Amino acid sequence: MGFPKNFLWGGATAANQYEGAYNIDGKGLTVQDVTPKGGFGPITEEPTPDNLKLEGIDFYHHYKDDIKLFAEMGFKVYRTSIAWARIFPNGDETVPNEAGLQFYDDLFDELHKYDIEPLVTLSHYETPLHLAKEYDGWTNRELIGFFENYARTVFTRYKDKVKYWLTFNEVNSVLHAPFMSGGILTPPEELSQQDLYQAIHHELVASASVTKIGHEINPNFQIGCMIISMPAYPMTPNPKDVLASRHFENQNYLFSDIHARGKYPNYIKRFFKENDIEIKFAEGDEKLLAENTVDFISFSYYMSTTATSEPDKYETSSGNILGGVPNPYLEASEWGWQVDPIGLRLVLNDFYDRYQLPLFIVENGLGAKDQLVEGPDGELTVEDDYRIKYLNDHLIQVGEAIEDGVEIMGYTSWGCIDLVSASTAEMSKRYGYIYVDRNDDGTGTFKRYKKKSFYWYKEVIESNGENLQS
Questions:
Q1: How far is residue 430's CA from residue 432's CA, in Å, rounded to a whole number?
Q2: Can you name the residues that pair with 147 across neighbouring β-strands?
Q3: How many CB atoms lie within 10 A of CB 455?
Q4: Membrane spanning segments where (predicted)?
Q5: CB-CB contact of 90 with 131 (8 Å)
Q6: Which are the contacts of 157, defined by CB distance < 8 A and separation ≥ 6?
């Protein structure tokens, strides 16, 4: 078993969870600034002091030191996002904020100093708040034009600095978190399926449109979609449970199908018919989707779930936005996310068999409560063997998928430096190789400490995966 020589090892973050500096250098407010309890929590009128995302881990002022640590681990690629509201504070302006553009210029220059390729998400759960309040987010078709203007601006500015781009982070999450994912201010209980799927159509058209724009600006751009992947096993061999698992997975496949194949699949057309949903296509939408499919499929993978035709018989579990019924054969993390390394191999094979496109694992990791302790050299560290085991076991399955013949571009583990959780807005749910001294109550020095996993991942990259333990 071996990883390709050009395999892109690295880590992933998002601007809204770690940048901080929420009101500095002309940045506007985003949906994240008014959800202090996380993406599913209450929405406040204005930012409140208990919102840890406002300061994040202050990457805005620490990025040089942090990138130096990423380089020490040997990163080949680093996934981050551009905060739309740092470039266009309200989202609908025509003239960008130069200070915001300059920040990302400096960030990308710092990455290139260490030969680290940026992998940039255009929209990672941080729709400008003005677009939510004035337009109800992606329910309004006008957002397509605003997003095109934003994408054209950053594509042009960074055309020689960024090669790899993602359009929308976990685009299928809008089904379950319409405000966090789609900037839709209408409360979920009042949001009709018609309006939700019309909003999804607007996002998919916008994704195809900026893919076209990007390829026109630089034909060498590699532009991908980003999907939550979560395989759903039938709870029993009952064919009704098998069908339930297929229906669950089709909710997610809808988004990758349209991104990769350029058209709405038949199963969603039946769903629309049975639920009186009629998607309004503007002139040119069908052609735009068909002619501007993605160059690769990227996805997050944290857990699998199970599906049943009789959900009332079982308890439900939490999990990366989608949740589900617990699998009795799997253990779970402190937050109830079931650990299933083999599920990652299944996802990789399923995506590749379905699309024959390169795949990129851009999120995978274990959120856990870490404790600083004194290490062998007297320095403070975290003995996070539980994280090493989780990542090792998942990377073993990535290697198995490569042996299966799957084309995999790279792997960026989630939260390579501790950041604020998107789902819960906690600091105590830590994913990183680097511990950041900040607490759930907002206290802390922001000092960085290398965890045991820092040195482990460094060896993984140095050996190109040869040191993984099966």
A1: 6
A2: none
A3: 15
A4: none
A5: yes
A6: 101, 104, 105
Distance between CA atoms of residues 34 and 127, nearest Å: 12
Using an 8 Å Cβ cutoff, are 307 and 245 in contact? yes
Q: What's the CA gap between 225 and 207, in Å, rounded?
A: 8
pTM over cut 0.85: yes
Vertex 172: Cα angle to 403 and 147 (nearest 5): 110
**Structural contact between residues 413 and 365, judged by C-beta atoms closer than 8 angstroms:** yes
pLDDT of 380-392, one tens digit each? 999 999 999 999 9
CA separation for the pair 412, 80 (Å, rounded): 10
**pLDDT interval class at 172 (50, 70, 90):** very high
- How far does CA 42 lie from the centroid of its chain? 22
Q: Give yes or no for residue 145 having a pLDDT over 80.
A: yes
| 360 burial via Cβ count (<10 Å: 0-12, 13-18, 19+) | buried
One-letter amino acid at 445 equals T
CA 303 – CA 27 distance, rounded (Å): 35
In single-letter form, the type of residue at position 85 comes to A
Give the CA distances from residue 1 to residues 5, 114, 294, 405, in Å, rounded to whole numbers and listed in that order: 13, 29, 29, 11
Domain 8-462, architecture per CATH: Alpha-Beta Barrel (3.20)
- Three-state SS at 125: coil
pLDDT at residue 320, rounded to an integer: 55
Report how far residue 65's alpha carbon sits from residue 59's, in angstroms, rounded to the nearest whole number. 9
- Could you give the C-alpha distances from 88 to 97, 99, 153, 176, 250, in angstroms and in order? 6, 11, 10, 27, 35
Q: How far is the C-alpha of 282 from the C-alpha of 244, rounded, in Å?
A: 33
Domain ranges for the chain, please list them: 8-462
- Note whether 223 and 121 are within 8 A (CB): no
Distance CA(450)–CA(237), nearest Å, equals 46
Known catalytic residues? 363
Closest CA to 468 of 397, 405, 413, 366: 397
CA distance 188 to 42: 12
pLDDT single digits (tens) 183-234? 999 999 999 999 999 999 999 999 999 999 999 999 999 999 999 999 999 9
Question: Secondary structure of the chain: what % helix, strand, coil (to 5)?
Answer: 40, 15, 40
Mode of pairing for the β-strands spanning 359-363 and 408-414: parallel
d(C-alpha 222, C-alpha 264), whole Å: 23
- Burial environment of residue 441 by CB neighbours within 10 A (0 to 12, 13 to 18, 19 or more): exposed
